[in-house]
Specification:
Layout lengths: L5 E4 L4 H14 L4 E4 L5 H4 L3 H6 L2 E3 L5 E3 L1 H10 L5 H6 L3 H16 L20
Parallel strand pairs: 1-2
Antiparallel strand pairs: 1-3, 3-4
């Protein structure tokens, strides 16, 4: 059984990869970070479609959080002040705003710094 949470992200997306590298350097979450393309998703209890759709946080017990709530869990796992905004993102009024903001960014990641046109394509159509 795993003892650390797992953060699963899109390793083919430049924006996603840059964001995860920033988190590893600056936020330093206590988790294993892996691109979905190199992960046994079935063993983690998630589908490829879900992994393509949003960043995922999977607890050692197998609970799956996606999108903004995965980001909140990442922040809460970090040491120091990062846990505060993470906890705030789980509160009902901010949770909805965080979800909307996450979807806006995720749906436009090909337009974000580091993103490419390939980021907007489903993985089966990427070069």
């Amino acid at each position: 059984m795993r003892t650390r949470p797992v953060l699963v992200y899109d390793g083919d997306c430049g924006f996603c990869t840059t964001s995860v590298r920033f988190a590893e350097r600056r936020i330093r979450p206590r988790c294993t970070v892996t691109p979905w393309q190199f992960t046994d998703l079935e063993a983690l209890g998630v589908t490829r479609e879900r992994a393509e759709h949003e960043v995922l946080w999977i607890t050692p017990a197998g609970r799956v959080y996606g999108g903004a709530q995965a980001v909140a869990k990442l922040l809460m796992s970090a040491r120091g002040a990062w846990a505060v905004p993470g906890a705030l993102l789980t509160l009902p009024p901010l949770r909805r705003l965080a979800h909307a903001g996450y979807r806006l960014v995720a749906d436009n990641r090909h337009r974000m710094p580091g993103g490419t046109a390939a980021c907007s394509l489903p993985s089966r159509l990427r070069p």
